[in-house]
Amino acid sequence: MEIPFLNLKSAYKELKSELDQLWTDINKDSFYVHGSRLKAFEEEFAQYLGVKYTLGVANGLDALVLGITAIGIGEGDEVIVPAHTFIASWLAISQTGAIPIPVDVDNKTCLIDHTKIEDAITKKTKAIMPVHLYGLVCNMPPILEIAKKYQLKVIEDAAQAHGAFDIKTNQRAGTFGSVAGFSFYPGKNLGCFGDGGSVATNDSKIHETIDLMRNYGSSVRYHHEIVGVNSRLDELQAGILSTKLKYLDEWNERRREIAKFYLQELNKVGDIVLPEYNAGHVWHIFHIRSSKREQLREYLANNGVGVNVHYPTPIHLQPAYQYMNIKKGAFPITETISQEVLSLPIGPHLTKEEASVCVRKIKEFFR
Ligand SMILES: *Cc1c(COP(=O)(O)O)cnc(C)c1O
């Protein structure tokens, strides 16, 4: 039995009749960019999150870049970011001319360690970018408190956290800061059939600015108020996202069931360290840790279990960021995580049987 790390075929199959109808309808109007479907999705997603506005853009990276730019951050400004994240979080900051200032993460949650943020603040610091990595909301109250104390903006990278919420307040990821970026890359919890992204904000000025920026700086055709870019979410992707948004909570619930199963079955197996259960977690990724990660990864791959590593090389040690001159050892927790972490198959279409095989193979490895 081959167990795919990600099963997008079954996601399509489950919604086939609705999605095929959408394709037929779209080709009836033949209106492909910035039409009624984008507008509808933006309103639905805003309502789902509990924010005033969302804006569809071309991808998650653009969502972050546009968000950072719209709140007035750019050349020479410093933005605090977790050392352990997907490189897009750092790249979004770099792309605006601002400087990513990494902070190590918490060993338990793998999320930004709020106790290390204040030491990284300088006169140039303008913002903090918490990343709700793996689908778990960061510990936001202390982060928001630090932001308030030093008058910093908060930009959330919510690319892996569609529907995730804080269990104390029920507040959803993407609604805490001035602005948040989401990705709809196919494998994300809410994914389209290509690239897509969204910015969420409660601020009408930010909404207005990004609305102009994403469309050549223009709201009236051939009249350009600012120097903009082309970063749009097309009608087909918006329609697909509207269709899939209706299933997001149910699909996240299925991920939770698998997570619970893994947590129960893998408890005390070998030297595995498991993530903690949290009811607001949407399990974009189910990660385990083991000192034998490389051997385990190879064993599972050889036995047909699709696994992955998020992420094998810390960003500060990537060739792209060598110019920052950050030495090995600078972020010890991030560096250890990158050596120990392993992502197991999870998703709304992973069957109980597939999860059981995965568990069995892991137990076999440690026997
Ligand atoms: C996927 C992802 C992004 C970027 O999204 P794209 O749509 O691929 O541009 C940003 N940050 C994190 C944490 C991500 O996982």
How does this model look, in words?
The protein is α/β, with parallel strands linked by helices and 367 residues long. It folds into two domains: 8-102 and 111-245, Type I PLP-dependent aspartate aminotransferase-like (Major domain) (Aspartate Aminotransferase, domain 2), CATH 3.40.640; 248-366, Aspartate Aminotransferase, domain 1. The chain has twelve helices and eleven strands. The chain has helices at 8-14, 16-29, 36-49, 60-70, 87-95, 140-149, 204-213, 235-245, 248-265, 293-302, 332-340, 352-366; strands at 53-57, 78-82, 99-103, 125-128, 153-157, 179-183, 197-201, 218-220, 223-224, 286-289, 341-344. The longest helix has 18 residues, at 248-265. The radius of gyration is 21 Å and the shape is globular. The structure holds pyridoxal-5'-phosphate. Pyridoxal-5'-phosphate is lined by residues 59-61, 85-86, 88-89, 131, 157, 159-160, 183, 185, 195, 197.
Features of the shown structure:
367 residues; Aspartate Aminotransferase, domain 1; seven-stranded mixed beta sheet; two-stranded antiparallel sheet; globular
